[in-house]
Amino acid sequence: MTLAINFVSEMESDAAFEELSAKGAEGSSKLPKKYSGAATAGMWPIRRITYWELAYNPFVSLDDRRDMAK
Predict the structure, then answer these.
(1) Tell me: the pLDDT tens digits for 20-63?
(2) CA dihedral angle for residue 42, residue 44, residue 15, residue 7, rounded to 10 degrees
(3) Spatial contact of 32 and 41, defined as CB atoms under 8 Å apart
(4) What is the secondary structure of 22-68 as a DSSP string?
(5) How far apart are CA 7 and CA 22, in angstroms?
């Protein structure tokens, strides 16, 4: 299972990864990486079965709660 946190900018997504690392979070299974269309994503495991994906996608609009806008 993957849970996602969407960010409004690539810089904000990268900062979240840096903050996790600075606080001692270990085991990043996938460091932030650029994908086609300038989207970025990376993952942190939680108990080996669930992952948090920290992502930025310039083609997705987010509302005030950072949910995908309809």
Answers:
(1) 778 776 666 666 777 766 567 777 667 667 777 888 888 888 88
(2) 60
(3) yes
(4) HTT----SEEEEE-GGG-EEEEEEETTTEEEEEEE-TTS-B-TTSSB
(5) 19
Mean pLDDT of all residues in 17-21: 81
Q: Which two tokens stand for residue 10?
A: 């690539």
Q: Residue 14: enclosing H or E segment and its boundaries?
A: helix 10-22
Best CA proximity match to 5, nearest among 68, 51, 54: 54
- As given in the structure block, the two tokens for residue 45 are 């495991």
Domains and CATH numbers, the chain: 2-56 (3.10.180.10)
For residue 37, what are the CA distances in angstroms to 5, 29, 58, 61? 18, 22, 8, 14
User: Tokens 């920290």, residue?
Assistant: 54
